Amino acid sequence: MSFPPPNYIPTSSAIPGIDIYKPAPEDTGPQQAVVSFNCPRCDGTTAYSAANGGLTCSFCGYYEPPKKPVVGKGAEEFEFTVETVERAAHGWGVERTDLHCQRCGAHTIISPDTLTYTCPFCGSNNVIQQKANQDALRPRFLIPFKLEAEACNKIAREWLGSSWMTPGSMRRLARIADFSPIFIPFWTFDSGAYATWKAEVGHTKSSRHYNSRTKSWTTTTKTVWRWESGNVKQFFDDMLISGTTRLSQRLLGQIQQYDLKDLLEYEPKFLAGQHAQAYDLPLDMAWKKARDAMREQTRLACRKQASTNKIRNFSMTLDFSDESWRYILLPVYIAVYHYQGTQYQVMVNGQNGRISGQRPADWIKIWLVVLAIMSPAFIAGLAGILLMLSGRDGFPVLMIAFVLAMLGIVLSFHLVRQAMELDDV
Fold this sequence. Notes:
The protein has 425 residues and is of the alpha+beta class. It contains 7 helices and 16 strands. Among the domains are: 68-189 and 236-291 and 323-357, no CATH class; 363-422. The protein is 26% helix and 32% strand. Strands 6, 7, 8, 9, 10, 11, 12, 13, 14, 15 and 16 form an 11-stranded mixed beta sheet that branches. Strands 3-4-5 form a 3-stranded antiparallel beta sheet, with no helix packed on it.
């Protein structure tokens, strides 16, 4: 019998000269493989660099280029079967720590040696660190960061000062904003959709009648309803559904224009020096959300086929086919800043630099503009009243004042709504 026995491996021994062996751990497959990011030259910690797309050591300058080829939109997709999910890799493939925020509830996956106790989403220090869950699905693809953190400051400075509604001091805040790079989980879905529909569609018909008694013509209109039907066939390609419910979906949607042609196969090295967020919207719930969106788009396409916009008793039968999914990570920079005691959040697309976020409104400036908009109506109304008091015909001037007032109210309402949307999430 050979020694050591099969499936036994060496282990540490407290007695010199004595070799001790232990049973090898059960092979759990590639999903449990863990890699390190130490520099092979100086053993320092390496981090992914958006500037050159590889691992860079900040101590000795060692550079390791990326080894994964770009797969783009040809990245593998998976069917909705139990076997597919069970065979999928789990965990992150690297030791990570879960930073759980007690204020906003976000779960951020960080490196165990990261000396941070601040949530990148809300800036809270009230966090709990624990070992990251390795049971969740592992992402299969990602888009690496193309934008460096320093570039976010310039983008944010221009963005904060791009609206006249914000305070003039906002440009200076962008210089001190600390942008944190973080991979956000997303699901992509493909599906064919075939729908048949029917509805009553109304057509307006007019007719003229001559009244011999009044010797005049009258026009009458009526709506004639008739049944129409049709079918719609379309294919949804890479519909993105956010895997997190902890971020503002409105802000995230404004920067969601990613080019999936840059997708790479996931490997743990891309997380070197980077944060990631674990998904809290599982696959089945994300697929339900995607199907609802597909169903609504298909419904609108069906209604668009009707010969008029007057529709009643609409019904639709929809079948999905060729359904597939991916779990991917997309790059986002997030910054939290404070202005006059209020907290605001800014997001930057780590691939193309698109920005969205909250900005405080300068209400003094806005109300002065509203006053300027309403001033012509007030002046015209006052002039009309003075004309009438002097015995002259001021009614035409009052009518002009009324029209100006209505226009001013509409413009002011639009202006105030835009200002309220600046810091609305």
